[in-house]
Amino acid sequence: MKTEIATRFNPQKKSNKELHKLKDYIGSYLFVLPALSFLFIFSIAPIIYLVWLSFHDYSLPNPAVFTGLDNFARMIQDKLFIKSIGNTLVYTVGSMFIGLSGAIAVAVLLNRKLKGLRLFKVFYFLPTITSEVITAMIFLWVFDNNLGILNYLLKVAGVVSPPAWLLQPTTAMLILILIGAWRGTAYNIPIFLAALQAVPQSLYEAARIDGANGWKQFIHITLPSITHILVYCMVMSVIGSFQVVAVVDILTNGGPMDSTMVVIKHIWQQSFEFNYVGYGAALSLVLFPLLLGVTWLQLRLSNGKD
Hints:
By secondary structure, the protein is an all-alpha fold. The protein folds into 2 domains: 42 residues; 228 residues, MetI-like fold (Orthogonal Bundle). 76% of the residues lie in helices and 1% in strands. The protein is built from 15 helices and 2 strands. Helix 4 crosses helix 14, helix 9 packs antiparallel against helix 12 and helix 14 runs antiparallel to helix 15. The longest helix has 44 residues. It is flat and about 65 Å long. The two termini are 44 Å apart.
């Protein structure tokens, strides 16, 4: 009490205290300055430049010309862009459903500690750490209609005209979904496995005493206990699916008949192949609020479950 009164009526001591506090603030900001600089240079500044480009007609090496909302009006009339959104949604739903289902199933098996699964744990994460380009090349060697292993085996088995897997709209999309699900399964297995190991075993013991079989335990105990993790994985799968482009480039290049033209591939074509940089920036800008909304939804659902 005496110290506070002395500080209040001692201007010199009070100024020294404020100066010391200011030095602490400056030191704290200096520590985070490198990270903030990195964030501004590589994240915030490109977003600002993207917004600026979306209102201009810009084709390299010509200077940018302000056109207002022309790029966005053109977007509404771009049938291929609308189709690419539909293709991306089909890919997203298919790969997410198969990938998450497979990840949960494998995680449940790994959580049972069966014999021989220790060796499997070494390999199940390989699709995630493998480059998308290498993954696409592997599937190209399997499904190529001329040099693919699958068609070679079908010919050996007596099939005269094996399917051209990557040249038919339906099978081409199914192969892309299979690749996305394969990588998604590998990525989500350790996440679900950690969530399963956090579920109290007493719940399963009580369920077994009450006569619940394995399926009922999974429906009434396992799934409700990992719902917040499932929501997180679903949102991350959606965001990842909207970023797919390398696999499409190598396997189908958006074909056949634009059946596998996804959003990022269309934006890439408009920006770098056709040199409509301003229009490509406008297309990219449309994806930002969509993915932001999905992230917001994930946070709301997670908070609600917690």
